[in-house]
């Protein structure tokens, strides 16, 4: 599984979450300004923390070079971290939004 261990799941997670919203849940989350502000806030905190954890040449968290793309931006952060971050945050907000809709309907 060389080169696929972290990159492939990260790449697949984004369209999977988007498809869940567009084709199944249809919460309208992507049309909400609050969603995009939430992502901006999360990434604003993620960048300095993740940058500190992964900064080269002496990272606290190391990635096996065979399991990720090697692309790092900004502050030596692997781009896969942003893909997974988007997917995890979005999936969580979709679940909360769907749950809230169910509660209001009852």
TrEMBL record:
Keyword entries, A-Z: Carotenoid biosynthesis, Isomerase, Membrane, Transmembrane, Transmembrane helix
GO molecular function: intramolecular lyase activity; lycopene beta cyclase activity
Residues covered by the Lycopene cyclase domain: 7-94
Pathway the protein contributes to: Carotenoid biosynthesis
GO cellular component: membrane
Listed GO biological process terms: carotenoid biosynthetic process
The keyword Flavoprotein appears for this protein: no
Topology in the lipid bilayer: Multi-pass membrane protein
Pfam family, one: Lycopene_cyc
Keyword match Transmembrane: yes
InterPro entries assigned to the protein according to its UniProt record, in alphabetical order: Lycopene_cyclase_dom
Main location: membrane
Location within or outside the cell: Membrane
Name by which UniProt lists this protein: Lycopene cyclase
Taxonomic placement: Bacteria, Bacillati, Actinomycetota, Actinomycetes, Pseudonocardiales
